[in-house]
Input
Amino acid sequence: MKKRWHKVLALTLAAALCLGAVGCGKEEGTTEEQQVTTETEGTEGQENTENQEDTEDGTAHEAEGKENQAEGAKEPEENGSTAETEGAAASPMTLQEVWLQADGAPTITAESTLLIDQESGTILYEKNAKEKIYPASVTKIITALVVMDYLQPDEIITVGTEINEVTLDSSKAGHVLNEKLTVENALRGLLIPSGNDSANVLAAATARKAENDEEMSFAKCEAVFTDLMNKKAEELGAVNSHFTNAHGYHDENHYSCAYDMALFAMAFMQNETLAEIVSEKSYSGNGADGQFADDPEVITQDYNWVSHNYLITDNEYQYAYATGLKTGFTDEAGECLTASAEKDDMKLISVLFKGSDPARWTESTSLLEYGFNNYARVELTAAGAAIEEVPLTKHNKLQGDTVPLVYQNALVTYLPTDAVDSVETTVTILDDYKVEEKDGTVKVKAPLTKGEEIATVTYTIDGKEVAQMPAYAGADVEKGTIFNNIWYGLKTFFSHLFSLKGLITVVVIVVILVIIYLILKRMRYGGHRRRGGYTLKSPSRRRGRRRW
Output
């Protein structure tokens, strides 16, 4: 009985040592015990003699005889924004409130104002941004967007009688009946000298293309085109806009708001052709790019247009970082300006309605400078990049012991420059996925599907919550089973077998097994020798030597 007990003890010791070897070579710093709820600090979480612009009462606002002039622009989009291809379908956008307002905002006298980051759509400053306004020629921003949905810049279009459907006091580019010109140069006429005639030419060409009807009357063309404008506005996320013409001449039912115009400007600046046009101080050239120079039967014109945008032309109001965008005026709308600018890695758009001259230039500059000087661009995480690795439980260990927690899109925001290093993040696992262990460690319960929302990330600055964002599983995770866990144990053992720690462990096991073998052998054969000695001393042999 004693012999059997020793054998059982020795075999149990050997088994324990072998099972212990399965974990040999495991690296230090494993995330198995990692806390899920964490905090990290310092995250990056002008007119040059402005041309006549539309006026309802027939009074030319700008000096007469300067009709051939223009306006400029430029603009991008929101969180992790990606530029749309030219003529691509619009996607709804929403402007985002800034997490923390910077100090030092300028005083703005215009009735409606907005300042946004061009890429993320972050609102850095606003004043009555969603209140109804009359947009005047700033309308031509969305006009150009609709045109680019249907026409190519190098297409040749022909001017028709639609140029007669503008009022005498309108700003004009100077097109003539039956003239041929490229779509790109018609857009120049629309945006540089702010031509209402250009607006009608483009609206007619676009509507006829959209309806595949070259004989369509201009009245029908205008109805079709304005319907496209209103649909485009809705697609872009507009909240208070309705359009009745392509040029912005006053109509009680033709209105918008600063918020919507900022959305349109963002989409506008994503189009390289449009952004390039509004950055031009002037344009001189043939409307058809000289394509019909050898054909005297074809009517074309040479143009000399100068931008109405004093922020980009050479004058006292020029702003060094301006890249565009579009001016406007009617008695009802007041002096209007949507401006874009780029400085270092920041691109901003300011929208100003119902202002006055020269305040629209100086106040737009002050707004843009306020944004550049008081805010910093912060990329808190890239699209698909791990916010952190979250420990798992009840999972297939062959897939690892953590799952990356990610955002679906890049998280980019703008913060006051003095608050950039004050951002703290806290990750909270949703209750349906949360398992809290006795030591307080929070883990995520398998199974998981990639892209499944499993957590919320909260951003705070100086203890104040500024934003919450959903976070998602960055990989598929299977539920653990007895079979894949056994396979995991074997795989782990053999994968670490030839590491230094693994080899030492194997040597120790071999030595112990040898010792156990020797002990067992001694127990077996040593016992026989004791029994043999006992036999030599048996009573029968003693009796055999006894004398009688």
